[in-house]
Amino acid sequence: MGPYARTGLAGIVSCGVLFTAVLIGRPDGTGNDENAKDERPQPGPYVALGDSYTSGPKIPRQSGTPAGCDRSDHNYPAVVARQLGVTAADFRDVSCSGATITNLTAPQKTSNGTNPAQLSALSTRTRLVTLGIGGNDIGFGSTVTKCVTMGAMYRATGSDRLFSDDAPCKKQHVDGGIDEVAQKIQATGRQLSAALVEIERRAPKARVYVVGYPAILPAEGKGCGRELPLAPGDATYLHDKGKQLNTMLRGQAEAVGATYVDTYSPSVGHDACSAQKTRWIEPLRPSSPAAAVHPNAHGEQSMADAVLRAIGD
C-alpha cells in the first residue's frame, strides 16, 4: 500500500491491497446478449489491479515497468496467471506499490517512473480482473507507523509509567466515540463502489475478483515483540481495523451481486507477529525477501490459492 521506502513499513497494509475477491457477472440466460459475461470463466485476457499487497515489493524477481511499482513475478496475480495457463500476451499486471483507488483512473507517480491509470489496461476483450486495493485510502500505513512509534515508547517506559492504558495509539484515532479510521473505511467504500461500476463498464465480459487483505496482526495483540513493537491494545485495534476494511470490501462485492473471496481466514496464525518459519507477513525487519509489514512469497502464494479457489467455485 503506502510507499514503504519512506517509512520502512512498505506502505503497510498496503498495501495494500490490500485485499478481497469479488465476482461480477450475471449471464442473462439468453446466450444472445453481446455484453453478457461467459458462464464459464475464461483464462484470459487477465488484468491485475491493485496496491503493494498485489504487486509484491522486494519479492524476487522484481519485474515490469515502471520499476517504482515494485512488481514481483511471484506475486499472486503472476501465480494465478501461471496456474490458469494465461499466456504472457494475455496477462497484464498493472498493480503498483502505494496505489489508491484514485490511481485506478489517474496516473501514479512513483520513485522510478509513472504508472498509467490502471483501468486503462481493461478492454472489451478482458475476461478476468483481480483488484486488491483500499489500504492506502484509509491511511493504514501511516497509522501503523504512528502506533509502532508509540508502542516502542510504551515498552521502553515499562508501559504504565507513561501511558494510562495498553492502547495509547488508539486514543489518537478515537475521540468521543468517533473512530476516524472507521470513517475513512466508509468513505473508501463509496469510492470502491464507483470503481467497480467503472470496471464493469470498461470490461463488460470480465469476471472481477476484488482481493482483500490477509491477517497482518494477531487478533489479541499477543506475540508482537521487538520485531513489531506495538502496545497490546493497539495491536488489537489495528487488527480490528483490518477486519473492518475487509468487511467493507465484502459488502461492496455483495452490493453488486458478487462473490467475496476470503484471504484473511487462511492466513490466521501466519501474521507478522508469528514465528519466522510460519509467517506470511514480514515484520519491520523482514527475515525473507519482502517489504516490511507486507506479504512474503508464501503470503502471495496463499492469496493466489484463495483467488484460484474462488474462480473454481
From TrEMBL:
Q: Which Gene3D superfamilies match?
A: SGNH hydrolase (3.40.50.1110)
The segment(s) forming the SGNH hydrolase-type esterase domain are 48-301
Task: Write out the catalytic residues in the record.
Answer: 52, 294
Disulfide bridges in this chain: 69-96, 147-169
Alphabetical list of InterPro entries matching this protein: SEST-like, SGNH_hydro, SGNH_hydro_sf
One Pfam family, please name it: Lipase_GDSL_2
* Keywords (A to Z) from UniProt: Disulfide bond, Hydrolase
Biological process terms from the Gene Ontology for this record are: triglyceride catabolic process
Q: Where is this region: Disordered?
A: 30-72
Q: Which SUPFAM superfamilies match?
A: SGNH hydrolase
GO molecular-function term, one example from the UniProt record: triacylglycerol lipase activity
- Protein's recorded name: SGNH/GDSL hydrolase family protein
